[in-house]
User: Fold this.
Amino acid sequence: MVKINHNSAMGMFVAILVYVHIICVAVSGRVHPYLSGVEKPISNIFDTSKYGIYQLGNGLGGTPQMGWNSWNFFACDINEKVIKETADALISTGLAKLGYNYVNIDDCWSELQRDSKGQLVADSKAFPSGIKSLADYVHSKGLKLGIYSDAGAFTCQVRPGSIFHESDDAKLFASWGVDYLKYDNCFNLGIEPEKRYPPMRDALNATGRTIFYSLCEWGVHDPALWAGKVGNSWRTTDDINDSWASMTTIADLNDKWAAYAGPGGWNDPDMLEVGNGGMTYEEYRAHFSIWALMKAPLLIGCDVRNMTAETFEIISNEEVIAVNQDSLGVQGRKVYAYGPDNCYQVWAGPLSGQRLAVVIWNRSSKTSTITAKWATLGLESSTKVSIRDLWKHEYVSENKVASFGARVKGHSCEMYIFSPSTVTRSVS
Assistant:
């Protein structure tokens, strides 16, 4: 484990024309670990004072994790054939090259009971070759294998949990070549998560294998306040379902914790539902855009072996993915809302290179024009900005000042990168 320096403190942001100079008051004499040097947010409105304070420091999670998880589409109907074919599909579709490199098996992979030695055992019917063999196959494709367990007596589907078995289970996962652990919260015996989750962190670290640690505590005890020193990501919400109501509610809940995420540890509003059929194309595009802006994990939850062209178009948008994977690592957030029930919304977040990612989101059911004013983005009104549309893949405005409006369909969004005119950009 890397020792965490709790003595660093961030100073205040001062806006001077376009650029904002960050005054770092570091008691220990060190500047902020993620906002030092030339890469500093352009705006003074994005609180980053909590970033980097608690990060686990195991070398993983420099950007939000990307990959695929079995649960949202398959639930318990999983087997090694599905996992292998999914790995193959990530390669053949080109999704792996875009960063989707974790192939994560969720609940129901194990037998209903441990063996006579107290060890977890893969379901003999669904995974007859064993998890080690499956990991070898996934690794042969240049991908990584994730697995699931629970910080309780049983998993949510009543398979054996890992509480009080952390050391043995971590050793077993490492011996199989597992690269990622999703750790759930069912049957938790009434023990506080702050006590149940650290033992698995310590057990994983003790194996000597670098394993991404994803806490799935559902936001019950506000994990953003403590989980950064325990895992690489932490669920801030209950489970998502494939509906507009669920997705929008979860986005709002996750937004509350924006100041506590950053490189090494991310807020997790649950997996993507894009492609599972419960929302429209426009709603899924908004889902993907907001998750990318929020620096949420991008874990595909559909059957990538049988995607529609529209689903692939959404999850393969390289410009939107680049926002999620931006090296600055600052979570975008809701900066302004107005109109009926505050359904006309502007979400934004700083990017490297003194740029801003901006999502104009129409949460109403009718097409409307929504305006983002420079003041809501932390920009001086005289700042000239070039604007690139990340879904049209083109520049839609040059030297724009004061505000920018867009006509947005109901339950849809538009996503942009704002670059001040003094920032060099390449035209594609």
In short: Confidence is low (pLDDT under 50) at residues 1-38. Residues 297 and 403 are 31 Å apart (CA to CA). The longest strand covers residues 412-420. The two ends are 43 Å apart (CA to CA).
